[in-house]
Amino acid sequence: MTNMKPGLLLALALVLFAAPMVAETQPTAKIYRIGYLSPEAASQGVSRPFRDALQDMGYIEGRNLVIESRFADTHMDQLPALAKDLVRAGVDVIVTIGTPTVQADKEATTAIPIVMAGSADPVEHKLVTSLARPGGNVTGVTHSPGPEISGKGLHLLKEAVPALSRVAILWDSSLVHEGLSLDAQREVARATGLKLLPLDVKTLDELTAAFATATREHADGLFVFPNFINGKHRKLILDFAETHRLPTMFQDADFVAAGGLMSYYSHWPALRQRAAVYVDKILKGARPADLPVEQPTKFQLVINLKTAKSLGLTIPASLLTRADDVIE
Questions:
Q1: Closest Cα partner for 249 from 145, 158, 178, 327?
Q2: DSSP assignment of 44-66, as one string?
Q3: DSSP 316-327
Q4: Which secondary-structure segment (H or E) carries 19?
Q5: Contact yes or no for 270/264 (Cβ under 8 A)
Q6: Terminal CA-CA length for the chain
Q7: What are phi and psi of 116, to 5 degrees?
Q8: pTM for the whole thing?
Q9: Residues near 260 by Cβ (< 8 Å), separated by ≥ 6?
Q10: pLDDT in tens, 140-172
Q11: Rounded to whole angstroms, how far apart are CA atoms 40 and 228?
């Protein structure tokens, strides 16, 4: 140092003096806060496809992202309070799972953006003005292209089991879209000679009663809508179907992976992933009112051949070739 020129000494001193000042004045990375409201049980956790999609776009929990999650465990009357809790938490955006959560959040706030990660027709439910121009603080993706998809699911079950004659339907009459879907199924039933046995289920007691009615009325098939009550009691439904040797059609592939015969519906993981894209756009400054609502574009037919074999069924080759996933 004694041989260093005075000019170099001065420059070094300035650098050493300025370094801590630069470190002190660098902006802190923003931490984004996402609210997540679901009617499911807390044990379900935040959707993994949704989380993974966020991570792929650079949102890392513990670094620049906090997810404030709230779960109602199918107690729908708790949703309004949980929605208000997320508003009080000051989140930047709220992600909703299912139509009732969107309704609860929309009543709780008109300021915080709301992203649907799958809902029934938001125009029918007065959640948005139109799909192309939502017009408020709600946008995202729907989970159904329309009631006809449920009619198609029933038709596929009849195609798989031509001898089918009487199908029990587990549905929730409080959900408008399930009523519309049931109407579409009635049209299919008339065209194919099927008799439908709609069983309204909102509680565990009603599910138990529905099982008794299906048995008494000699149902030889079962169609299950993807509402949160049916999802909560998946094992009971599958056990009932297995005990009574009923071919089943679901609208959630997880039921088929767990032993159901078939499922046909929108691809749920893809909906959650698309919701993450909406969140990213909003966090970068986009307004929900300017982001058109998307309808599903990816659908999935899943068939469990192990279950078919246990029921003594031979699934037509023409149906197997159309399946997106065959469990063997």
A1: 158
A2: G-S-HHHHHHHHHTT--BTTTEE
A3: -HHHHTT-SEEE
A4: helix 6-25
A5: no
A6: 77
A7: -80, 125
A8: 0.85
A9: 224, 238, 241, 248, 250, 304, 307
A10: 999 988 899 999 999 999 999 999 999 999 999
A11: 7
